[in-house]
Design a protein that fits this description.
Blueprint lengths: L10 H11 L4 E7 L2 E6 H17 L7 E5 L4 H12 L3 E5 L5 H10 L2 E6 L2 H5 L14 E4 L12 E4 H14 L3 H8 L5 E6 L9 E5 H12 L10 E3 L6 H14 L3 E3 L6 H8 L3 E4 L1 H16 L3 H23 L4 H25 L7 E4 L6 H9 L4 E7 L4 E5 L12 E2 L4 E4 L4 E5 L11 H6 L1 E2 L2 E10 L5 E6 L4 E2 L5 E2 L1 H5 L8 E7 L6 E7 L1 H10 L7 H4 L3 H15 L8 E6 L19 H7 L1 H5 L4 H8 L1
Parallel strand pairs: 1-11, 3-4, 3-5, 5-6, 6-7, 10-11, 10-12, 12-13, 13-14, 25-26
Antiparallel strand pairs: 1-2, 8-9, 14-15, 15-16, 17-18, 18-20, 19-20, 20-21, 22-23, 24-25
Helix pairs in contact: 1-2, 2-3, 2-6, 8-9, 12-13, 12-14
């Protein structure tokens, strides 16, 4: 690459400048042969350049679409940066999607090439029809041996693909450099398909400018030091981790470690000891529940001491954030107790997360207030934010030094927000996407007078803090004409160890009902504590004592609701909701439309026959 100064207006500019100016510093960490191995920016750049050259050698040109179907790993990043470096466009595809969905996205995006994690992911392209997607010419396998996809498609292993790239660079060493320097901020960088909680996925066209402006804005709010390190485990197919993790780490020169899998995140945290982590609320809820379960296994006296410490921490944190005490009074009340709690309790809990975490972010869904308060109390701040695929992820967030519980913070620099008459949050700014790929109708419907319609109902307080109350399409209108936000009801149960998910229901019905999916690990602990015998875990979901416990929770939460919002009846599902069953998005959000259609008979069973007949009439 040339060393002549040039302005940086894309993340590709930033990446190659890091390779030039910080060649020996650690860029990424990858688990190999049982240990995390650091790769320098120079090594990172060499693999990326070779991957980019491999695409050129295979006939991929600037402006072409290239799909990536894989879980989060270093190969994902190398493929992504290689694609972007030659002016092509990345099409991220979740590895959890079905054969039909994968084939649809590759076809709809006109992808000419695809990177696939393994043979299983690659074969999704042909399982449904036996024929490869129409425009597909190249498939690169990260793991495994090449398989036959049919005529017209070259299938090659990652190793052989890099060999092609090296061959091309021997013939033309500057091939990638020339194209990387031509990438413009107004060029299309990626087509990211919405996760599809409702309807057919739409491909959001995100420009290089959109990505760069988000990173530029976030740099005004968060700073990083030489000792910081990020751990990635969320899907890079989602803009949340890709922008606020992968690209943000490049922007700040932050070492970026890849977790081996979702199952090994806890183990990997103790190995790499991250200081920064992106996660979704379900991750924090499960971590909180695991800590609580561990406490319950301790002797009563130890349990009591730990709960005292956490109670002090929560009370002190709440009053600090609310600003209800002056510094001098706070010191008089809590300084000595907090010192004991920190040394004997909080520090030990933090060790379970690697011991160095100083900043965690939460997005994609509302975070339980109790869970949030717990992590703040033990000394691991969570910066809750909000964004959509169409806004290139974060459009609002709390600041490290300015946290307002139960809100997603204030708009990031450069973003304007306002509320429509019906309460829908409207947004505009440099990070808002360019429209939906080959879908002018959906693009036109997504904007009103230049403002992007988020589809979320919100409140904005006098300080500018935003609270998301529900999805506009999810609003329940009862038979009596009452408008109910189901997420508001469901969020009341977040953080309870027994509850994994709640789906409230009641559109055009006389009252609200709910379907509960319980946390199976917590359910086993509950059975052990209360001496409940069982042969299979699923039996516990229908146990009389378990049902009484859920009844108690429902009665308790109903107390804070007006009568028309209260859950009148509920059922307990015999298992947890899963991504594999198409019930959750890859970021663990409930697919409400899928759930209500899939379990309609269960929901109907909670209403009287005459109510159902009247509703269907």
């Amino acid at each position: 690459m040339t060393t002549e100064p040039r302005s940086e207006t894309t993340i590709i500019d930033v990446f190659w400048r890091r390779v030039e100016t910080s060649p020996e510093k650690t860029a990424i960490l990858v688990k190999q042969d049982g240990e995390y191995r650091p790769l320098t920016w120079q090594e990172h750049g060499e693999i990326t350049r070779t991957a980019a050259a491999g695409l050129l050698k295979s006939g991929i040109k600037p402006g072409d679409q290239v799909a990536v179907i894989s879980s989060t790993r270093a190969h994902w990043t190398w493929a992504d940066l290689g694609i972007l470096s030659i002016g092509a466009r990345t099409v991220p595809i979740y590895s959890t999607l079905s054969d039909e969905e994968v084939r649809f996205l590759v076809n709809h995006s006109h992808s000419r090439a695809v990177f696939a994690e393994n043979e299983r992911q690659l074969l999704k392209l042909v399982e449904a029809t036996g024929e490869p997607p129409e425009r597909l010419e190249l498939a690169v396998l990260f793991d495994g041996e090449a398989v036959d996809l049919g005529p017209g498609v070259k299938v090659i292993t990652w190793s052989d693909f890099l060999g092609c790239g090296r061959s091309h660079l021997e013939q033309d060493p500057e091939a990638v450099s020339r194209l990387a320097e031509q990438v413009n901020e107004e060029d299309l960088a990626t087509i990211v398909y919405t996760s599809g909680t409702t309807g057919v996925p739409k491909g959001a066209m995100i420009l290089h400018r959109n990505i760069y402006r988000v990173l530029e804005s976030m740099a005004e709010l968060i700073s990083f030091g030489e000792n910081d390190l990020a751990l990635a485990f969320l899907p890079l197919s989602h803009v949340y981790e890709r922008v606020s993790g992968q690209f943000l780490s490049i922007y700040h020169g932050l070492p970026y470690a890849y977790a081996e899998s979702m199952e090994k995140v806890a183990e990997n945290m103790t190995e790499v000891k991250p200081t920064v982590l992106n996660a979704v609320p379900r991750f924090y809820e499960k971590a909180y529940q695991r800590v609580q379960a561990a406490i319950r296994q301790m002797p009563p006296a130890q349990q009591g001491f730990i709960r005292w410490a956490i109670g002090i921490g929560k009370r002190a944190t709440r009053q600090r954030l609310e600003g209800s005490l002056s510094d001098s009074i706070w010191n008089q009340l809590y300084r000595a107790e907090m010192r004991i709690a920190e040394r004997l309790v909080f520090a030990k809990i933090r060790e379970r997360f690697g011991g160095r975490l100083r900043l965690m972010t939460s997005g994609a869904a509302p975070l339980s207030n109790d869970v949030h308060l717990f992590f703040e109390a033990i000394g691991i701040p969570i910066m809750e934010g909000y964004g959509l695929t169409e806004t290139c992820a974060p459009l609002a967030c709390n600041r490290p030094d300015d946290v307002r519980f139960k809100t997603v913070g204030k708009p990031i620099p450069g973003i304007e927000v306002k509320l429509a008459e019906d309460g829908e949050l409207l947004v505009r700014g440099p990070s808002v996407f360019a429209g939906y790929f080959e879908n002018e109708e959906a693009t036109a419907a997504a904007f009103a007078d230049g403002w992007f319609k988020t589809g979320d109902i919100a409140r904005i307080d006098d300080g500018g803090y935003i609270t998301i109350t529900d999805r506009k399409k999810d609003i329940i209108i009862t038979a009596g004409g009452k408008h109910i936000a189901p997420q508001m009801i469901e969020n009341l149960f977040k953080g309870d160890p027994l509850v994994a998910h709640v789906v409230a229901y009641g559109d055009r019905r006389k009252y609200v009902t709910a379907l509960f999916a319980l946390n199976m690990d917590a359910l086993v602990d509950y059975a052990r504590k209360h001496n409940i015998s069982y042969s299979q875990t699923a039996e516990l979901t229908q146990n009389a004592r378990v049902r009484r416990e859920i009844e108690r929770l429902v009665e308790d939460r109903n107390k804070n609701l007006p009568n028309f919002q209260r859950i009148k009846r509920f059922l307990i599902l015999g298992r947890e909701l899963t991504i594999e069953e198409n019930e959750l998005t890859p970021t663990m959000k409930v697919k409400r439309k899928v759930i209500t259609e899939k379990y309609l008979d269960l929901f109907d069973s909670m209403y009287d026959t005459e109510d159902l007949e009247a509703q269907r009439a």
